[in-house]
Each structure stands twice: as structure tokens, then as C-alpha cells.
Automatic annotation (TrEMBL):
Pfam families: OsmC (PF02566). It comes from Litoribaculum gwangyangense. This is OsmC family protein.
Length: 140
């Protein structure tokens, strides 16, 4: 199965990119690189893709396991190399779970399944980045 994306230059340092979902997004350089800052930065968009991929896995597993929690979020910090081509060589991903009845063991299992088995974006990142995954539980 192949995805098809078309990315069209809109002038200056801005592009519009299609998505197989039918929703488009804008990609643009920051002001320091001649852009106006009105779109997503390409490298940061990769980090959002990583969080979204793993987050969707975890959400599906949480539903399947019928786990109770209020919400969860994923925070990512990434180190960008100094030399060109610049890329993320170290990525730290933090899963934060919130709620009164957190089943920490099963939530950790959901994270582990995503990280080790299901998330294809995670596997892509492993090809060029040192990955650190942490899980945090916040009981109210």
C-alpha cells in the first residue's frame, strides 16, 4: 500500500501539502530562514508524526484494555545536530498519564507495545536517532 502526497510551492518559503486523509497542511520556514512562520517546520513536523503515531497506538490499546484515565500527553525533546544536513540524533519521548485509577502496569504495557512493535514512525527514527522513552504517572 502506497501513500501519495503532493506538496505545492505557494511562493516565498511556503508550501501546501496534501495528505491521504484529505486534510492539507502548510509547511514554511521560520523567520530566520526567510519564512513568515505561518506553517509547520519540516523537522518539528517529524516529531509531531512520531508522537501522533505512538499516541494513536496507545489510545487504541487503552480502549481495547478498557483502562481508566482522564487523559494522556506525549512530550518530545530532540537534539538537532550542528552540522549540515542537520537531523535529530537524540530524541527523548515522555508519556504522561493522568487520572485517579491508573493501572500503571497495563499503561506501561500499552506504551511498550507501541514503542517496540506497532509504531512505524518510531522504527524510522531508530534508523538515525538514539531514542529514550520514559513513562510518567500523575494521580490526582
Amino acid at each position: 500500500m502506497a501513500d501519495h502526497i503532493t506538496t505545492t510551492w505557494l511562493g516565498d518559503m511556503k508550501f501546501e501539502s496534501t495528505n491521504p486523509s484529505g486534510h492539507n497542511l502548510f509547511i514554511e520556514a521560520g523567520p530566520d530562514s526567510g519564512g513568515k512562520g505561518e506553517g509547520y517546520r519540516p523537522k518539528a513536523l517529524m516529531l509531531s508524526s512520531l508522537a501522533g503515531c505512538s499516541g494513536l497506538d496507545v489510545a487504541a490499546i487503552i480502549e481495547k484494555m478498557k483502562l481508566k484515565l482522564d487523559t494522556f500527553k506525549i512530550e518530545i525533546e530532540a537534539n538537532l545536530t550542528e552540522e549540515h544536513p542537520k537531523y535529530y540524533d537524540k530524541v527523548s519521548m515522555h508519556f504522561h498519564f493522568y487520572g485517579n485509577e491508573l493501572n500503571e502496569k497495563r499503561l506501561q504495557k500499552a506504551v511498550d507495545l507501541s514503542v517496540e512493535k506497532y509504531c512505524g514512525v518510531m522504527e524510522m527514527f531508530r534508523q538515525f536517532s538514539e531514542m529514550e522513552i520514559k513513562t510518567h504517572f500523575h494521580k490526582k
